[in-house]
Amino acid sequence: MASNGLFTQGLSIDDLLAKRNQRSQEQQRQMADYAAQGARDPQRARMGSMFGSIIGRAMGNNAQGGAQDSEMEKLKATESRRQELVGENMQAAKGSSAAMFAHAKVLQQQNYTQAARDMNIKGIAKEKEEKTEAAAAKTKAEDDLTKRAKLESEQMEAQARQDYAFELGNSFGDNKGFQTHLQSGRASTKIIELAEKQIAENNKTETLTNDGKLLVESGMVAGTPEFKAAIRDIIAKKGTLRNIQTPMEQRQMLTGFIQSDKQYIKAKEKLLMVGDAFNLLPSVRAGGQKETALLERTISEVYNSQTKAVSEIERLVSKGSWGRGMQDWINNGFKGTPSAASVDEYENVLTIMDTAMRSVVNGVVGTQAGIYGDLMTGDNLAKSTENLRVSSQREATVTDTDLGTPLGTAGGRPDGVFNQDGKSFRIVKGIVYAN
Q1: What's the per-residue H, E or C state across 361-413?
Q2: For the chain, which residues make up each domain, given as ranges?
Q3: How far apart are CA 47 and CA 421, in angstroms?
Q4: What is the spatial distance between Cα 1 and Cα 76, in angstroms, rounded to a whole number?
Q5: Dihedrals phi, psi of 434, to nearest 5 degrees
Q6: Has this prediction a pTM greater than 0.90?
Q7: C-alpha dihedral, 133 to 137 to 140 to 142, nearest 10°
Q8: Percentage of the chain exceeding pLDDT 70
Q9: How far apart are CA 60 and CA 55, in angstroms?
Q10: In whole angstroms, what is the distance from residue 5 CA to residue 72 CA?
Q11: Which band of pLDDT confidence, cut at 50, 70 and 90, is reported for residue 378?
C-alpha cells in the first residue's frame, strides 16, 4: 500500500495493471536481446528477436499471472474495507464518546494509526462535553425539585392557613358576613388576625361563670353560638340533676351526660380506631400490603377528624425523630401515603395518637365532672366517672413484646399452635411466629 491514510487510497488496480505491463515488456525485451545475439545475419536476428519476445511474454504471463491475480483480490478487499471504515468513521463522529472510542480501537486494529488518534481526540472532547451536559442536567433537575418542594410547601401552608380561618369562622355564627369571609377559602391575613383579636377579647372581657371557664378550658370560645348553646344545655341539665334524689339515679344521669358529649364520642371512636391499627402492626411487620394501606388510612382519618387531639398530636410528632418519607407525610398532614416509612415509625405515630385521644377522653370526663360535681357528693361523683375514664397510656400486648419476629401471614389458617417439618409455630391474629 502506498499510504496508510484512511482517507487516501493506496495502490489502485490501474497501478497494479501498469506494473504488470511494465514487467512483461521488460521480459520481452530481455528475451528478444538474448535470441538476437546468436543470429549471424540481420534477417535471422530479427526472427530471433521476435521469437524471444513471444517466449518472454508467454513466460511472464505464466510465471506472474497467478501471483498478480491473488494480489489484485487482496487489493480489492483492502480497498473495500477502507471504504467501509470511512463510512463507519462518519457515523462514529456523530455519535457518543463511547462510540468514538470503540471506533478508534477498530481503526488501530486495522493499522490506521493516524485516523485512530484523531478519532480518540474527538472522543475525549465529546466525553468532556457529555459530562458538562450531564452536570447541567443534574443541576437543573435538582433546582426543579427544590422549586417544586418550595411550591408544595407554600401551597400546604396556604391551605393550612385557610383551614385555620375556617375553624375561626365557626366562632362567628351570629355574624354571617364575617363568617363567610373567614370560610371562603380566600381569607386574608388581616381578616384572620381580626378574628383572633375578637375571640381573645371575648374570652378576656366576658364575665365567665365556673362552668363557662371549664368550657373555655376544654377548647370552646366564649361568646360563640356553640358556647352559648353549651351554657344553656348545662343549666337545663343541672336543673334536672337537682331534682334527682337517689345517688344511683344521679350517677346514671351524669354518666349519660358524659357519654352523649360530642367530643367524648369522637375521641372514643378514634381511640378504638387507633387500637385496631395497633392490631395491624404484626401483619405490617410481616409485609402485608393490605394491612399497611389500612393502617395508613386509619392514621390519616384520625388526624384529619377535626378532634381536640390534633394540636396535641402535632406537638408530639414535632418532637419525634422521623425518616424523610414519614416526615414528608407528617408535614402533609398525614394525607396520601408516605413514600417510605418503617414499622417502628408507624407504631410511634400510633402511640402518639393513642396518648392524645386518651387525654381528650379523660379531659371531657374531667370537664363534665367539674360542671356537675357540685351537685353530687365526692364518692358519688367518683363512682359516676370511674368507668368512663381510660388509662393515660396504652398497655403493651403480648403480640407487641413476647412473640418475637413475625414469620409471615397464616393464609387463612386459624389462630393456635401447629407443627410443620418438625418445627412448632404459633398463629396469633393471622400472623405466624416461631413457638
Answers
A1: HHHHHHHHHHHHHHHCCHHHHHHHHCCCCCCCCCCCCHHHHCCCCCCEECCCC
A2: 13-125, 262-395, 403-435
A3: 111
A4: 12
A5: -70, 140
A6: no
A7: -130
A8: 77
A9: 9
A10: 20
A11: low
